[in-house]
Design goal:
Elements: H1 3-23, H2 30-43, E1 47-56, E2 59-61, E3 78-87, E4 90-99, H3 106-122, H4 129-142, E5 146-147, E6 153-155, E7 166-167, E8 183-186, E9 189-191, E10 197-208, H5 216-225, E11 230-231, H6 241-250, E12 254-262, E13 268-270, E14 273-277, E15 282-284
Antiparallel strand pairs: 1-3, 2-12, 3-4, 5-9, 6-7, 6-8, 8-14, 9-13, 10-11, 10-12, 14-15
Helix pairs in contact: 1-2, 3-4
The structure holds manganese (II) ion (MN) (2 copies).
Amino acid sequence: MDIKKYLEAGKIGKEAREYGKELIKEGVSYYDVAEKVEKYIRDSGALPAFPVNLSVNNIAAHYSPIKGDNLYFRKGDVVKLDLGAHIDGYISDTAVTVEVGTNKWGDLIEASAEALNNVIKAIRPGITTSEIGKIVETTLSFYGYNPIRNLTGHGLGRYDLHHGLSIPNYDDGSSTKILPGMAFAIEPFATNGRGYVREGKGGNIYIFRKRENLKGIYKEMFQEFKALPFAARWCTHYENYQSLLRKGSLLGILYHFPILQERKRFMVAQTEHTILLTQDEVIVTTR
Ligand code: MN
Ligand code: MN
């Protein structure tokens, strides 16, 4: 584990999150926020570990804008800003929820932030993933909310956003232990719904599913994006990129992430930090 690079990626992720949080205002376009935050990450000497996600209200995750999508933040929107930076493949992954111009969902947002805080306080070598899930679930239920059960935190590997561990937001009975040397993201999703997401249309985020024996433009694209998620917006320098993305998905070379929305369109809030566990320390890289 290259702690130095993880720390640097974490610091940049944190700063980009705080910067992006201030940009989200009524009338501002999703596209501008995503582009500015990604530029901030690049200008800081890192690369985005995945496209900036701006998932609004009942959408829990995986919306990233495209130019011309005509989406602007509206008063009352509950916006999950989820972003990541990487240095040489060492990733930070962090998220915050912002309510635009109102304070109707303050306690939902607080519930998810508090669940994350409570988990961080409890992290120790040997803690199991179900113990973590139980802390999330208990905290959220104290506020009267549910966790989203089919969204999880995850281990982080080099150039690997979802590596090994899956860390539930409820007590799923799993006995996987968190051990020194692990890097991982904890991300409690809180909802006033029953707590399940389903796939929806659109999203504009892709990842290489096939990673060997690639040919032509796909080989070039893989050299650029590696095994990390990338945005359709980032492909405009490839000729006919829209058809490349479509064809790549049809052929199974690429995977297209669908948006994930609360099943009955209830509200969703999310908070996320990246954590390193060493022999004697719990390091929250994005705080
Ligand atoms: Mn994230
Ligand atoms: Mn994550």
